[in-house]
């Protein structure tokens, strides 16, 4: 028995994003439209300091955004280090649909967005500017577990036709080097969708996710028979396998399979995800390795 529709997304802000995605799904809309609508809520919220508008800047004071989207036909679109655009996920979708490419970065991505009619905006809020000025006093790059760096939104949906799509969007690690791109816009790292099997998304220290192609690995684990939770756990174990110290490294994954089963797993305690199904929209504390 397939459970559908279902939406799963990362962290507390997933609740509000799920609501918006659910509105699309409840009317029989596509998973692709749902995932885009969902994460746009998070991108526009200045209180979410890790995604879109109001996100913390890089060490030079620039808010640079990473996002990708993937549909049920395994077509992806992505933007990296995009500045001045409120909804990078929608630009990523345009890259998928209206360009011959999968990924655009930096000024080229901005030019494309402006050509497509997106409006140029200042995304650096007063609060994020203040935080940056405070950070500059010591200028140390020390990501802390579950704090300020790890709240990328990844959102996966299974629609009433049984199709899967996913979206992932972030301002990346606060105080990153200018030009740094994380896992979130990389198809296979921050997000992967295979409509035959399932979908996955990652959050946390992007450098750790990239080196194992994390979301792709989660989906491949499901292909070999793992449950969504087990697939996430195995991927987390691959990440920690070569690490001397796990201090200050958080990585979490969420996953959904074709049956509408969902799960998540993280390295450290503190990761949670939101699941919306026919009965409820609830936050679940992820199981974790340590
Ligand atoms: C990154 N995975 O850029 C993202 C970080 C994250 O909120 O999850 N941020 O590495």
Automatic annotation (TrEMBL):
GO terms for cellular component: cytoplasm. The record marks 151-152 as: Cleavage. InterPro entries: Ntn_hydrolases_N, Peptidase_T2. GO terms for molecular function: hydrolase activity, acting on carbon-nitrogen (but not peptide) bonds, in linear amides. Substrate binds at residues 180-183, 203-206. The active site is at residue 152. PANTHER family: L-ASPARAGINASE (PTHR10188), N(4)-(BETA-N-ACETYLGLUCOSAMINYL)-L-ASPARAGINASE (PTHR10188:SF6). This is N(4)-(Beta-N-acetylglucosaminyl)-L-asparaginase. It comes from Fodinibius halophilus.
